[in-house]
Design a protein that fits this description.
The complex is a heterodimer.
Chain A: E1 2-11, E2 14-24, E3 29-34, H1 40-47, E4 55-60, E5 63-64, H2 69-75, E6 76-79, H3 92-102, H4 107-120, H5 136-148, E7 154-158, H6 166-181, E8 186-191, E9 202-207, E10 210-215, H7 222-227
Parallel strand pairs in A: 3-8, 3-9, 6-7, 7-8
Antiparallel strand pairs in A: 1-2, 1-4, 4-5, 9-10
Helix pairs in contact in A: 3-4, 3-5
Chain B: H1 16-19, H2 22-35, H3 42-58, H4 63-70, H5 74-87, H6 92-115, H7 118-129, H8 139-169, H9 177-204, H10 221-238
Helix pairs in contact in B: 2-6, 2-10, 3-6, 5-6, 7-8, 8-9
The chains are: A alpha/beta, B mainly alpha.
Amino acid sequence: MIEARNLYFRYEGEFVLKNINLEVKEGSFTAIIGHNGSGKSTLAKHLNALLLPTKGIVLVDGIDTRKDEASARKKVGFVFQNFEDQLVYSTVAEDVSFGPENLEMGAVQIAKTVNRTLTKLGITSLAERNVNALSYGQKQMVALAGVLAMNPKYIVFDEPATMLDIKNRRNIMNIINELNKKHGVAVILVTNSFDDLNYADNIVALKDGCIVFSGNSKKLTKTILKRAGLND
Amino acid sequence: MIRSLAFGQYIHKDSVVHKLDPRIKLCYLLLTSILIFFITSPYKAALFSLFVASSAALAKIEFQIIIKNLRPFFFIFTFIMSMYAIFSPEQFALGLIAIWRFFVLVVLSLIFTFTTTISSITASIENLLRPLKIFGIHSRNAAVMTAVTLRFIPVMFLSLEKLREAMLARLANLRKTKNIRLMMLAMLEKMFKSAHNLSCAMQARLYNEDAESSKTFSLSKSDYISIFVILVVISIVYY
């Protein structure tokens, strides 16, 4: 389980996260919504120890992110909003191998992992392609493959469909849903789209760095959305 | 025009040069880059150019692609030539040799980057610098830094193209220094942001400076033949 307890985060003298209390259970699907600048991405980065709390604590399966960032990151993968900037190497297969290399897997195991991951996402045909020559949708799949190859227990998706067309958006959301329902990976989805909320078991709404709602979609009313600055 | 540039990009083809050991290719690049500074006679320059052209042909790189990638450097070539013509016309031949060296350096780098994937470059730098570990130098840092730089060269050109189009759409005159400065500043800002995003992504994927590349190398028959060829070229050019 990922837990954030009394989490505060200060950036340039201002608190951008205030008193956040959050629980993400194993195998669950959590959606984090909020207006631009509400602190969604900042909160998401705390779950993968990319940012560390100014006050409070974030625990990943009992590991304090301030004490052991690497162990927390092994468990929590992160797919960024700017997936183009997420790719390190030139070809798809090589880029997917970057994470397993860092985990110090052997060459044979890396090759197997890369192959299995590409097959899982149905992109084996892209293996030798140059990442710069891919479409947005394909780049997003490669970014996801790079994270999946590290076999994380939880994956944070920071607005994964923002730059995609409707078809690719539907495709990536179906894959995320399948990862959660079929493979038991806990998903934390940062989103701006109300449609994505249908996939989630738990919704967290943020406003100005504070949680204004936490619960399932049935309890999410128009009044709450209005309070979160998401509905007129 | 910028969109069609492939500088720094790997192009997958089934060629002898593609199959050569990347460590050997990297050493060739360094060796030949030094070697061209020993070439002063037009005869040797022609001979070496023939070697470079044959390497490009063996790598199955189209002539048009080389020209396209050289186009941005034509301004520099013209500038060097004009400087020689204006300030020391008696040394014009030296100017030609200087441009030839520049031209060959670019083509050699193109052949290397077109035929070697970034991870192979990374792995070969890592492999070649491994002895430095006894001095506490992590070879993977240097290798990944090179890889990332190469990966971002085409991204930088694309960003520049997008900015140029955006400015043209708002009727900017790109001959004005002020607008060029604005475009370059915007691009730099974008590149710094991308670099920040990439460093976050690498952190998220547990970047480990002690890890070793998954690539393993072994010399093949064609590598040994290439060593022989390069030794012949060096001895002809040097002596």
